[in-house]
Amino acid sequence: MRRTKEGLLLTISYIFIGIMVVFTIYPIIYTIVGSFKTNSELTLGGSFFPEIWHVENYVQAFIQADFVKYTWNSVIVSMAVMVIATLTASLAGFTFARRNFVGKKLWLAAYTTLMFVALGSVTLYPIYSLLTALHLNKSIAGLILALVSGQASNVMLTMGFVKSIPKELDEAAIIDGCSLYGIFFKIILPLIKPIMAVVALFSFRQAWNDYVTTLIMSISLPKLRTLTVAVVQLKYSVNAAAEWHIMLAGASIAIVPILIVYGFCHKQFIGGLTAGAVKG
User: Fold this and answer.
1) Which of 104, 113, 196, 222 is the most buried (most CB within 10 A)?
2) Taking the model in full, what pTM does it have?
3) How far is Cα 280 from Cα 263, in angstroms, rounded to an integer?
């Protein structure tokens, strides 16, 4: 009876995981397959696979979206956001985990609250107004700062990971004459590499896929557009007709950098998630 119950639970788990995998992978497969169709095949429906595979959609998307220019913008913005987010999240997590200061509990409460409150587009206007006051609204630095904001979850992840590291290591380093920054860079940072890989991948993905913030920041200065904004613009042709096939071709190309980054970081990413699950 017990084995039957365990087998039933295992079967239900496999079915649930299979459904989740289908819902996760299907949009990607549909995007890639749809990128080889004509616009009429996409809008009218029909067979899942195209009657004729139109490779020229990719050529047209590459030319129309100016992929070289906007890909370079996306790479600069995403890499900068990843580096700044990783450094600031690790420093903040270390400070919250190891130091006591005035207002610590208040800051922690604010961070915890913000993790569960999605303000979304409401914050765009004040952020844009602040960047305008600082004369950064028409520069790539302003866009990077706008995308770096909102790291409550990254800070909390890092803080939990740092707390799992024995404080005796800090005390031993202090006895050896190590400063606070020396403890962070020489002791803590090498030990939190797995969770830093998770933060880096999350922040890179968020910056690469961001559309609304980048669109607003680049309205007055189109040269700041990233690849995501340029790909969406492919849908609108000069003939006032939505060219979904060209947009899907552009989206398929835009997926490649994320897959490359994940390919280099997947071991650290999985290690960070599993270590965080065990230690937390």
Assistant:
1) 196
2) 0.78
3) 26
For residues 209 and 226, what is the distance between their CA atoms, to the nearest angstrom?
9
Amino acid identity at 37: K
145 and 79 Cβ atoms separated by less than 8 Å: no
Q: Are 191 and 165 in contact (CB under 8 A)?
A: yes
8 Å CB contact between 144 and 80: yes
Give the C-alpha distances (Å, rounded to integers) separating 37 from 26, 29, 56: 17, 13, 10
> Whole-angstrom Cα distance, residue 223 to residue 10?
53
Cα-to-chain-centroid distance, residue 164: 25
**Distances, alpha carbon 2 to alpha carbons 6, 7, 79, in Å:** 6, 9, 52
pLDDT in tens, 76-122: 999 999 999 999 989 888 888 888 888 888 888 877 777 776 666 67
- Burial profile 104-122: b = 16 or more Cβ within 10 angstroms, e = fewer: eeeeeeebeebeeeeeeee
Report for 1-5, 141-145, 221-225: range of highest mean pLDDT: 141-145
Nearest one of 91, 56, 65 to 222, comparing CA atoms: 65
Closest CA to 157 of 107, 117, 202: 202
- For residue 70, give both structure tokens: 């906007």
198-250 pLDDT, tens digit each: 888 888 888 888 888 888 888 777 788 888 888 877 766 555 456 777 788 88
